Amino acid sequence: MTEASHPIRFLHRGAVVAVDADAPTRTVLEWLREDARCTGTKEGCAEGDCGACTVVVGELDERGGLALKPVNACIRFLPTLAGKALWTVEDLAAMGGGALHPVQQALVDNHGSQCGFCTPGFVMSLWACYERHPEGAPSRQQLADDLSGNLCRCTGYRPILDAGQRMFESPRVALDRAPVLRALRELSSAPAPSQAGAYHAPRTLAELAALRLARPEARLLAGGTDVGLWVTKQMRDLGELIHLGDVAELRRVRIEDDAIVIGAAATLEQAWAALTAEWPALREVWLRFASLPVREAGTMGGNVANGSPIGDSAPVLIALGATLRLRRGDALRRVALDDFYTGYMKNRLEPGEFVEAIEVPRAAAAQRLAAYKISKRHDSDISAVLGAFAIELDGARIAAVRLAWGGLAATVQRAAAAEAALLGRDWDEAALQAAQQALAADFKPLTDVRASAAYRLRVARNLLRRYWLETRPVDPLPPRALSVWALEEVR
Ligand SMILES: Cc1cc2nc3c(=O)[nH]c(=O)nc-3n(C[C@H](O)[C@H](O)[C@H](O)COP(=O)(O)OP(=O)(O)OC[C@H]3O[C@@H](n4cnc5c(N)ncnc54)[C@H](O)[C@@H]3O)c2cc1C
Ligand code: FES
Ligand code: FES
């Protein structure tokens, strides 16, 4: 462990810049606009919701290639850029040799900008998409998913989506990756940024474990998509920070024979991609979790540790029977996720301990999994209710059942009475109705800005009915009968 201070070094506009890490909660957006005088990037909401501040961050991937990620500069703390490359809207025209980049030109040609406030953010999300698809335009739905973090109050989106498709029709202007990769490799051997008593960015699990033990009061920082808002919205002083994002062991998702092991600092995008590959029924919850820029920064470890009762990962992971691997120094223990929460935003972590990984047992052949998210907006919105259900049938009989809910109680939790009403019975309408009734014994939901108590309970019961319609042994309804995504695909 070192108390020496080292600056934050990252690649910006073709050169390595070094900035002191003495104000670790200063955001990338503040640095861009106030210090670098790159004012093309705008501030709208300062909470990751509108996308006006979208920039693209480049980093080395596991195979040594370049991964480009759109992220929200307004909630991203500057020190977390160390060892990475940053692109903003100012960089794009330069790539086109003075002419507009095809992304920008397509927005002009298709009338994708009116007041223009959202435009730099859209340009950067579109550019990340452009670079990720050297083969040509993705589907319109894929494009819409990639733009899920960008709001526009003027255009109505059609012209922006048109631009997103047409930008692939101009002669290609690809990023020259070789010099970027060279610079990132050099940066990876520079000392990690640190500021005694303020900021630490360990690179190995052992360093992290020792730091955490020595500084149990320090705040862990993963993707900062919760923590960032404590600064930008609540003006909180976070004290000393330990950043997890550079610990290679924590950033991996491993597919083992009997489990998917999600490192606590793996991004939400990585984690949901792995879960959805195993359980395709999770696709809708994946794509409706926040937005692409939030998922490219935030982690599933942070989502679970934060422990919001309306967090989307926990119900799904509990339905899947996930276990947390918790580390304190060299000591490792496992806690079932459905036993982890002890009250509103409270959990069983001991001082000096942290979440190392989430272990998700792989699918039993007979397990039928579904997860349904109810929120006011389709994209980029927090859930009012999220139900995740896993039933194992032996013929028509329910041999095992896990029903997990977010939004119905002070913590994400299983519905013990509803599960008891189902276990051992045939999965028929009488069993469904018994479980629906039992939900009233399991939960006394609150009324808040997202939904009333009565609505929450009613929607919870209705989601169970939908699940039954999809999974009943007799005459199950096909997904296209019930899924909005299926409708999109038909269109
Ligand atoms: C615009 C927007 C939309 C959002 N939409 C959704 C949504 O649809 N669904 C949803 O569930 N959430 C949503 N969120 C919340 C947030 O994105 C998630 O909770 C995210 O997973 C948090 O992860 P993070 O890595 O950013 O955590 P951070 O903000 O870095 O940390 C969150 C908390 O977890 C602690 N922590 C982090 N890692 C560990 C660890 N390994 N061990 C112990 N403690 C740890 C931190 O100290 C902190 O207390 C949204 C946020 C924004 C800004
Ligand atoms: S300013 Fe709205 S997402 Fe950053
Ligand atoms: S052009 Fe005005 S907000 Fe998008």
Description:
It is globular and about 70 Å long. It has 4 domains: 8-90 and 176-243, Beta-grasp domain (Ubiquitin-like (UB roll)), CATH 3.10.20; 102-166, DNA polymerase, domain 1 (Orthogonal Bundle), CATH 1.10.150.120; 253-361, Uridine Diphospho-n-acetylenolpyruvylglucosamine Reductase, domain 3 (2-Layer Sandwich), CATH 3.30.465; 367-487, CO dehydrogenase flavoprotein, C-terminal domain (Enolase-like, domain 1). The protein has a 5-stranded mixed sheet. A 5-stranded antiparallel sheet has the order 9-10-15-11-12. It is of the alpha+beta class and 491 residues long. The mean pLDDT is 94. The protein has helices at 28-35, 89-95, 102-109, 119-132, 140-146, 158-166, 177-188, 205-214, 227-232, 268-278, 283-288, 292-297, 300-306, 313-319, 416-422, 429-442, 453-471, 484-490; strands at residues 8-12, 15-19, 54-60, 66-72, 85-87, 199-200, 219-221, 241-243, 253-255, 259-263, 323-328, 331-336, 341-343, 346-347, 354-361, 367-374, 385-394, 397-406, 413-414. The longest helix has 19 residues, at 453-471. Flavin-adenine dinucleotide (FAD) binds next to strand 7, helix 13 and strand 15.
